[in-house]
Specification:
The protein has about 300 residues and is α+β, with helices and mostly antiparallel strands. Helices cover about 50% and strands about 15% of the residues. It has 13 helices and eleven strands. The strands form three sheets. Strands 1-2-3-5-4 form a five-stranded antiparallel β-sheet, sandwiched between helices. Strands 6-9-10 form a three-stranded antiparallel β-sheet, with helices on one face. The protein has a three-stranded antiparallel β-sheet with strand order 7-8-11. Helix 7 runs antiparallel to helix 8, helix 9 runs antiparallel to helix 11 (about 250-265) and helix 9 crosses helix 12. The chain is globular.
Length: about 300
């Protein structure tokens, strides 16, 4: 392999994630041929490689590049499939409105050439109150109608699969201590209404870490896993953000409830729906971490959920 290809080796975080989670043969083959795939896009789109972003993401590789005219950009490579295509569709619909702009794309191949942001500066670099305020303002502008005939999965459909996995985990012996919390999360999810007739386009994984500093705007969103539906669902991860700091503060339970209430008021969503989605999403992720053998992450998430 050439020296150029050596520089295109996938980051360890990506290799570790795809190696430790159940993935199909296509994803493993994608990872195996990723250096060659990257080299092909560099040639085809006339890009000059600066470096591979590390530690990078858990499901994609990001290359810092320059275009033929010297303009900096970022080449994101993901396994081909619905996830990459939906990300492209959402970014195109936002068209740079509080989100990273797409410069060039091959959705079927899982390749997006994006404007270069400051990847080392996210909203998490700000003090928590200021970061929450900025994040909420970004999210408010990001919420646009999904549009007639949109391709995005609905929140109800998406969370039905999450609930099914959570029910399966509930029956495992190691889940005995968290079953009351799991049952509450499932009941809350089942009690939420179905998606609205005119759903909102949601980021799907929005938190302070997905909002990066930019040049044409102070803060721009990256990495959507887009859905269509209830805005309160999209806000839930922001309500849970920096849970470790909140849990270490005096009066953590009251602080958690105040955060949910303030975010709901600021973005005009029902407080009970935000609380329900926050608890459901946090329990789902915490139990999944427990199942995957990550007890410290699971303990943090489930403790936060218990405060709600």
């Amino acid at each position: 392999m050439s020296n150029a290809d050596d520089r295109l080796e996938p980051p360890e975080r990506l290799v570790r994630t795809l190696g430790s989670e159940p993935v199909d043969g296509a994803a493993r083959q994608w990872l195996k041929t990723l250096p060659e795939t990257a080299q092909e896009y560099l040639r085809h789109w006339e890009l000059t490689l600066e470096r591979v972003q590390a530690p990078g993401g858990r499901s994609s590789m990001l290359l810092l590049v320059r275009q033929s005219d010297g303009t900096p950009a970022a080449l994101k490579l993901s396994p081909p499939g619905a996830t990459a295509a939906l990300e492209h569709e959402a970014l195109e619909q936002w068209n740079g409105l509080c989100a990273v702009r797409v410069l060039r794309a091959d959705p079927e191949g899982g390749a997006l050439l994006l404007e270069r942001l400051h990847g080392d500066i996210s909203l998490r670099s700000l003090a928590e109150p200021k970061a929450q305020l900025e994040a909420a303002a970004v999210l408010q502008r990001l919420w646009v109608p999904a549009g007639e005939g949109h391709p995005f999965p609905g929140v109800t459909e998406h969370t039905a699969a999450l609930a099914a996995a959570l029910r399966a985990h509930r029956e495992q012996p190691w889940a005995a201590d968290v079953r009351p919390l799991v049952d509450e999360a499932l009941d809350l999810r089942d009690g939420l209404a179905t998606d609205a007739a005119e759903p909102t386009l949601l980021h799907g994984e929005f938190d302070q870490g997905t909002v990066l500093a930019g040049d044409r705007a102070p803060w721009l969103v990256v990495g959507p896993r887009p859905l269509a539906g209830d805005r309160a669902y999209d806000l839930a991860w922001l309500a849970r953000d920096r849970a470790d700091t909140l849990l270490a503060s005096p009066g953590a339970a009251a602080a958690a409830r105040r955060r949910v209430s303030k975010l709901a008021d600021f973005l005009d969503v029902p407080t009970d729906r935000l609380r329900s989605w926050t608890l459901f999403r946090t329990v789902t992720t915490g139990v999944s971490a427990l199942a995957a053998g990550h007890p410290r992450e699971a303990e943090l998430l489930l403790e936060f959920a218990g405060l709600l």
